[in-house]
Amino acid sequence: MEIIPHSRPSIDQEEIAAVVSVLQSGRIAQGEQVLSFEKALASMIGVAGAVAVNSGTAALHLALLALGIGENDEVVIPSFVCPALLNSIRYVRAVPVPADINPETFNMDVPDIRKRLTGKTKAIIIPHIFGLPADIREIVSLGVPVVEDCAQSLGSSYDGLPTGSFGALSVFSFYATKVICTGEGGMIASGDSQLLQKIRDLRDYDEKDDSRLRYNYKLTDLQAAMGLTQLRKLPVLIGRRRAIAGRYNEFFREHLLPVPVSPSDREHIYYRYIIRTRHLSKLLDAGRDAGIAYRRPVFKPLHHYLGMTGYPKTDEAFLGTVSIPIYPSLRDTEVKTVLNHLQSILK
Ligand SMILES: Cc1ncc(COP(=O)(O)O)c(C=O)c1O
């Protein structure tokens, strides 16, 4: 049986040629390609600069360090997200403070964030979850430094401005199945050149005058060459995601079922297509039997890891949503297979 994976990278001859060319150049670690990749992403976001690192998690870690966050400082994050955010806060010995989500958008709920702010809150990490921009203007106006997490939202916009251009800093991930990919990889972008300077310094350890704690978080030119190629294709990659989302929307509307919300002031890039269900396990099992990988959008909410309660909307989303395959390399025939399968289940 041919399997339709939940996600897969969209790579072709262009990425292969770009990587081969770096291999042939003999300079494969951090170099010119990394610099070009940083400049290209910063210019796309419209900020002063960017620093490439080897994962989104490393990007989050360095963003928190650059903001001076440390022991006992509180950092607000959503509960309905992957544990990378939690880990980055633990790396700097700060305290994670999960917030609940808006059940319509799955993004962080602003009134709930407000309730969780204290005198110790030093930052809010705000992912634009599943490719839909969060209420970023309102969150920035809370007066706490904001790290925009654009791991799932590269290319989306709010009020006509790119996500990643609102926060003190923004972070990106280029993991194999992200919006653009370099295998593993990440970036921090900012309009504040002092913050960028700090991050650049922390990214690698060699040839420094002092022995301050630093990291080896460098991206390689091999990866950056791939990233640059992918970044150039971003409009096409997003166009394909939107076309597939359009097909799915049509199907769900025909069956009088809800489709993902996409408010008119923001551009969704459909990194994930989330459907609501009262039969989560059944749907996951039926997909497995049919060779289609449906997934829980979030493996486990963060408040569950932390043994906390008081997150009703996150719990509801955890128990009642499924992410179905959507990625640029998903073929039309595969989209049809998914739709036929969903149709057979609805019957
Ligand atoms: C919202 C969000 N932030 C951060 C990360 C971490 O990125 P990476 O896997 O590159 O460390 C991810 C990855 O899944 C993510 O989805």
Morphology call: globular
What is the count of DSSP helices, taking H or I runs of 4+ residues? 13
Strand order, largest beta sheet: 1-9-8-5-4-2-3
Given this structure, which CATH class of the largest domain is correct? Alpha Beta
> What does the largest sheet look like?
7 strands, mixed
Task: Let me know the number of strands.
Answer: 12
Q: Do you know the CATH architecture of the largest domain?
A: 3-Layer(aba) Sandwich
Could you name the CATH homologous superfamily of the largest domain?
Type I PLP-dependent aspartate aminotransferase-like (Major domain)
**Model regions low in confidence, pLDDT < 50 over at least 5 residues:** none
Distance between the termini: 23 Å
Q: Can you characterise this structure?
A:
This protein is an alpha/beta fold and 347 residues long. It folds into two domains: 13-232, 3-Layer(aba) Sandwich (Aspartate Aminotransferase, domain 2); 234-346, Aspartate Aminotransferase, domain 1 (Alpha-Beta Complex). 41% of the residues lie in helices and 14% in strands. The chain has helices at residues 13-25, 32-45, 56-66, 84-91, 110-116, 136-140, 193-203, 221-232, 234-254, 280-290, 302-305, 312-320, 332-346, and strands at 49-53, 74-78, 95-99, 121-127, 146-149, 157-158, 161-162, 169-173, 186-190, 266-267, 273-276, 321-324. The strands form three sheets. It has a seven-stranded mixed β-sheet with strand order 1-9-8-5-4-2-3, with helices on both faces. Helix 4 (84-91) links the parallel strand 2 and strand 3 (95-99). It is globular. The two termini are 23 Å apart. The model has no long low-confidence stretch (mean pLDDT 97). Residues 55-57, 81-82, 84, 127, 149, 151-152, 173, 175, 186 line the site of pyridoxal-5'-phosphate.
